[in-house]
Design goal:
By secondary structure, this protein is of the alpha/beta class. Helix content is 24%, strand content 28%. The strands form 5 sheets. Strands 1, 16, 17, 18, 20, 21, 23 and 24 form an 8-stranded antiparallel beta sheet that branches. Helix 8 links the parallel strand 11 and strand 12. It is globular and about 70 Å long. The two termini are 40 Å apart.
Length: 478
């Protein structure tokens, strides 16, 4: 017997940064094995300056510095180039990563730094690129009230605000699945206002999400120098002060716009270069625990920046001998514990009994229908496996067992659930829910007859898989 289940938003969703100027993309299977949970979204960071002579070569490669002077001292931002748009390479970055993210039951959170002199026609091309990927959270020209990014050297702040308004208009018209994130200034104690709120007022009104970036500590001199007590290339903040400042930013945005939009923090972490690895973990733990204890529920989501970092802004640090290897930091275990708490977990509610065959609908990581089986576990098992028959083996599925997530790729015939029981010893009989959801197998939504893309993808489940639960070894010779 199976019941229908519905996926809905957490109290505060968690997104995870995966690759930037500071580190390479890490595949979702590895991250899932480490975290044992999916995120609402995976954040990718790319840049788009197609008018520049050196485009599309990455800036640090096209214009190498004889004497390094800073991460942003290049003609355009040193993220990897966005190869869609005019170039139209939809089988290159970031699209292959976007497909993998969606196959694993997560949404794409895409940061694009864009040449602010580009035309509306250029932005329409990007909108067309993003239409097949369901809900995409798009952050354009983030930290736009600062002075460090290259796009701020090509336009005034008012021009940047007007450019953002234009991008919103294009996305809402040509790619309504794309939700825009405006990452701008924060509330200032001295003025009681948001930095440059007058220039960006219209942008705040037309965007879908309000956002800010704020690190609890940051070595902003990376990778040129080393943060020591004798240098001045870093900053450190009181965790509660950052928390209160972000909250006041939301309150001020509501006041000046007369609106109430979801508020996210698109980059958040403490830098181990400054705080050290132990205090880094404690600072993030304190921030996340304060969120759970705050009755206001003011923060819609935040992005942990990032999974693997060449410096110390990651759950893992890149092994300098081999960039394919990560060195786990104390922060990872602390963050993983918080990730699994109900406050940060996607809600799953059980509905009526479901007859087979049944349809599994997937719209986003916060809006989907699946099915639920009940596992009667009498003691700690020695084998816990899910077998998929010939008619099921090509399905793309995400499995959730009591808060732990597993992935079944098309072609996979068996998913081993034992890792859950390695960390959750069963001391008395218990009934555990096992849920199945079906994100798009190719990472893209189906195309409708009129050329638009459907809001959801639907997978038919013709039969149930076979569950193998055994509570003793097959054979032991003593």
């Amino acid at each position: 017997m199976a019941n229908r289940v519905t996926l809905s938003a957490a109290e505060c969703a968690l997104d995870l940064g995966d690759g930037s100027e500071r580190g390479l993309y890490v595949n979702q299977d590895y991250i899932l094995q480490k975290m044992r949970a999916v995120h609402r979204g995976i954040s990718l960071m790319y840049t788009y300056y197609p008018n520049d002579k050196t485009w599309p070569v990455r800036s640090s490669i096209a214009c190498p510095q004889e004497k390094p002077s800073g991460a942003w001292d290049y003609p355009y931002e040193d993220y990897f180039p966005y190869r869609g748009g005019r170039e139209g390479k939809l089988d290159d970055e970031p699209f292959n990563f976007m497909k993998e993210i969606r196959r694993h039951g997560q949404d794409v959170v895409l940061t694009l730094t864009i040449d602010p002199t580009l035309t509306e026609e250029d932005i329409v091309l990007i909108a067309n690129d993003l239409r097949p990927y369901g809900r995409v959270l798009l952050r354009v020209n983030h930290e736009c009230t600062g002075s460090w990014f290259c796009f701020t050297k090509r336009a005034s702040f008012q021009q940047l605000a007007d450019f953002y308004v234009m991008v919103c208009k294009v996305m809402h018209e040509h790619a309504p699945n794309v939700k825009m994130i405006l990452c701008a200034g924060m509330w200032e104690d001295e003025t009681g206002k948001i930095e440059m709120e007058d220039e960006f007022l219209e942008a705040f009104k037309v965007t879908d999400y309000w956002s800010c970036d704020q690190y609890l500590s940051l070595h902003w001199g990376w990778p040129v120098d080393i943060a020591t007590k004798e240098t001045n290339c870093y900053e450190a903040h009181n965790v509660d002060a950052v928390y209160d400042k972000a909250k006041k930013t939301l309150h001020r945005l509501r006041e000046i716009t007369g609106m109430n939009k979801p508020f996210v923090m698109s980059e958040l972490n403490a830098d181990g270069d400054v705080s050290g690895p132990y205090e880094q973990a404690l600072m993030m733990q304190h921030f996340m625990e304060r969120l759970q204890n705050d009755d206001e529920r003011w923060l819609s989501a935040f992005t942990m920046y990032q999974f693997r970092d060449d410096g110390r802004l990651g759950l893992e640090v890149t092994d300098p001998n081999n960039k394919d290897v990560g060195i786990e930091q104390p922060l990872l275990a602390v963050y993983r514990e918080q990730l699994h708490k109900p406050f940060f977990r996607t809600k799953i509610s059980s509905q009526e009994e479901c007859a087979l065959p049944c349809e599994l609908r997937w719209t986003s990581s916060e809006d989907a229908d699946g099915i639920e089986l009940s596992l009667n576990v009498t003691e700690n098992p020695h084998f816990a496996e899910v077998y998929f028959s010939e008619q099921l083996k090509d399905l793309n599925l995400m499995l959730e067992l009591d808060g732990w997530w597993f992935y079944k790729a098309p072609g996979t015939k068996c998913v081993d659930l034992m890792s859950y029981f390695f960390e959750h010893k069963i001391s008395q009989p218990v009934v555990l829910p096992l849920r199945f959801f079906a994100p798009p197998a190719d990472g893209m939504n189906p195309k409708a007859a009129d050329g638009t893309y459907k809001e959801s993808c639907v997978t038919v489940l013709p039969a149930l898989p076979e569950i193998r639960l055994e509570f003793e070894p097959v054979k032991v010779n003593k």
